[in-house]
């Protein structure tokens, strides 16, 4: 333990790698950039139909089960309201998600 209470292994006493600087521009272009390409995340285009179907995954299952149980037990008013709210909620959610598809992407000025 060091005098300030931190473990001794957390205090580096010397540079074990011997590296004092990063890659040069030439090394970057010849090495990793040529071999691996740019460090980019590509977001594939998702269709509106797929987004609509994905809205039924998760909490929407509970609403669908409630609609089925309402029908089985003869409560047709609840069945109608639950059945109508599922597609309307899914369509609203999928259009909002489609609208905000590229909001989180950063423009690095390239």
Short synopsis of the structure:
The protein has 4 helices and no strands. The protein starts with 24 loop residues before the first helix and ends in an 11-residue tail after the last helix. By secondary structure, it is an all-alpha fold.
Describe the structure.
The protein is an all-alpha fold. The chain has a domain of 52 residues. It is built from four helices and no strands. α2 packs across α4 and α3 packs antiparallel against α4. The longest helix has 24 residues. The radius of gyration is 27 Å and the shape is elongated. The model has no long low-confidence stretch (mean pLDDT 75).
Give the number of helices. Answer: 4
Distance, first to last CA: 48 Å
How many β-strand runs? 0
Specify the overall morphology: elongated
**Radius of gyration, Cα only, in angstroms?**
27 Å
H and E string: HHHH
Uncertain runs:
none
State the helicity in percent bands: 40-55%
The portion of residues forming beta strands comes to under 5%
Reported for the largest beta sheet, the result is:
none
Structural class: mainly alpha
Mean pLDDT: 75
Draw up the topology in text:
Elements lengths: L24 H12 L11 H7 L5 H13 L3 H24 L11
Helix pairs in contact: 2-4, 3-4
Provide keyphrases for this structure:
51% helix; 110 residues; mainly alpha
């Amino acid at each position: 333990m060091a005098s300030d209470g931190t473990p001794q292994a957390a205090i580096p006493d010397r540079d074990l790698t011997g590296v004092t600087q990063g890659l040069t521009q030439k090394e970057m272009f010849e090495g990793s950039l040529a071999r691996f390409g740019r460090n980019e995340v590509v977001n594939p285009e998702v269709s509106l139909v797929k987004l609509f179907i994905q809205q039924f995954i998760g909490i929407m299952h509970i609403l669908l089960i409630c609609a089925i149980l309402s029908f089985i037990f003869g409560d047709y008013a609840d069945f109608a309201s639950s059945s109508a709210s599922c597609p309307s909620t899914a369509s609203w959610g999928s259009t909002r998600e489609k609208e905000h598809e590229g909001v989180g992407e950063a423009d690095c000025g390239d």
